[in-house]
Amino acid sequence: MKQPVFILAQSELSQRPWDGATVRSGSATACQHDADTKALKAFTGRGRAGQGDLCRLKASLERIHAEMAELARASKTVRGRSFYLSVHRRAMSGQQSLRWRSMVTNRHLPWASMPALFALQLAPIAQWYVELQARIVALNNEECVVRRALHQAKKVV
Fold first, then answer.
1. For residue range 62-81, what is the model confidence (pLDDT) as tens digits?
2. Cα(128)–Cα(132) distance, rounded to whole angstroms?
3. Is residue 70 part of a domain?
């Protein structure tokens, strides 16, 4: 709580031990505490209010990246695979996304060609790939949204 500043009579200064307020002898009126002068600076709108959101967004992004890495590892455990998932990272933006890669050419495979490749697999494996594909699309979109929100939160905090 800020203390009011008063024009006080000429007398000797002293500080109260319980709150550090400056008082003049012979007067019980408090002067402004030194720490309160920071309030006179311009308000920038920045502070600790957004720190909690920033930490939650960072944790969410780390969770998404960990799940992406786990799905990439799981796709490499399928025997006889001709394609697998890899985590693609962009250095400039920090974006990570899951992409299919060919075992033969080691190039990225387009999303449109994946259903035809899934159909060549055994029925249970093909179904797993279809479910995995839906999760990949959701994770890639979620990563993009969370990374953008984190970028905006860093501007505010």
1. 999 999 999 999 999 988 88
2. 6
3. yes
Q: Domain count of the chain?
A: 2
Q: How many residues does the chain have?
A: 157
Answer yes or no: are the C-beta atoms of 108 and 134 closer than 8 Å. Answer: no
DSSP conformational letter for 147? H
Residues 6+ apart with CB under 8 A from 119: 126
Are the C-beta atoms of residues 99 and 90 closer than 8 Å to each other?
no
From the list 140, 144, 81, 145, the residue with the least C-alpha distance to 114 is 81
Above 60 in pLDDT, residue 31? no
Tell me the pTM: 0.64
Retrieve residue 65's tokens.
């990246």
Least confident of 37-41, 50-54, 92-96, 148-152: 37-41
**Parent domain of 30:** 1-38
